[in-house]
Design a protein that fits this description.
- The protein has about 250 residues and is α+β, with helices and mostly antiparallel strands.
- It folds into two domains: about 25-125, no CATH class; about 130-245, Tetratricopeptide repeat domain (Serine Threonine Protein Phosphatase 5, Tetratricopeptide repeat).
- It is built from eight helices and seven strands.
- Strands 1-2-3 form a three-stranded antiparallel β-sheet, with no helix packed on it. A two-stranded antiparallel ribbon has the order 4-5.
- Helix 5 (about 180-190) packs antiparallel against helix 6 (about 195-205).
- The radius of gyration is 31 Å and the shape is elongated.
């Protein structure tokens, strides 16, 4: 009998875990700046944890301004403000360029439901500035990787060429880095058998505003790769630039 009672007790605990009395079961409404909206409870699970969340009733999204997008509250990571039941376009000023931009509803849904950002996080920069910041970080990472590769093998032509390219990209887009360091890496690459180093030197000389040195590097490149089919496109661009410098 004692064994039966113990098993019954365990079964009772299982039933209580499946049907917690604290779970809300009724629909209700919330008051928003757009009027009252009907919401309903929905069960969600994350790992072994089951909990109740509230979502908009079907059709309630139509009461909101045009462009509103219904949220899936079961996949959000809740911030201090809790879940977002819907998304609306929101205008804000970019913290980088200062221009007003729209953080649109569909982008918000992607942020909070696909990328996993917390629901109290918001876009501080416009899309163009976010892309520029992201690309600048990629260039910075490429530069660091090139530095590491040259440090590991200074006699590697491809490593020196990658460093020259990374410095060129950073200076061209971000006005960061040393053109002198890039020119030195480009010349090292050329000495180590990488003809592209001469062309990169020309590009870096252009950034340094030394047209005579740029023309000299272009002429050396054209002599070096004369007749090489794989440099056909680069030769054409180098000749065109050299002609411009001679005018």
């Amino acid at each position: 009998m004692g064994r039966t009672g113990s098993r019954g007790s365990r079964d009772g605990k299982r039933r209580r875990r499946r049907e917690p009395s604290a779970r809300p079961k009724k629909e209700t409404t919330i008051t928003t700046e757009h009027g009252e909206l009907a919401i309903r409870p929905r069960q969600a699970r994350r790992g072994d944890h089951e909990y109740t969340v509230w979502e908009l009733q079907p059709g309630e999204i139509n009461k909101l301004p045009r462009g509103a997008v219904q949220a899936d509250v079961t996949v959000q990571n809740y911030g201090m403000g809790g879940p977002r039941l819907y998304y609306l376009d929101r205008a804000t000023d970019c913290s980088t360029c200062g221009h007003t931009f729209v953080f649109n509803a569909r982008e918000q849904k992607h942020w909070y439901e696909t990328l996993g950002f917390y629901t109290d996080s918001v876009a501080k920069d416009c899309l163009a500035c976010r892309r520029a910041i992201r690309h600048a970080k990629l260039r910075s990472n490429a530069y660091q990787a090139a530095l590491d590769a040259v440090a590991a093998d200074p006699k590697s032509g491809s490593a020196q060429l990658a460093l020259a390219q990374a410095i060129y990209e950073q200076y061209e887009h971000d006005k960061r880095g040393s053109t002198a360091r890039g020119i030195a890496a480009a010349r090292s690459a050329a000495r180590l058998g990488m003809s592209e180093g001469l062309l990169l030197e020309a590009h870096l000389q252009r950034l340094a505003e030394r047209p005579g040195a740029e023309a000299h590097a272009l002429a050396r490149f054209l002599d070096e790769v004369e007749g090489a089919s794989r440099f056909k496109v680069l030769r054409r661009a180098a000749r065109r630039r050299l002609d411009e410098l001679k005018k």
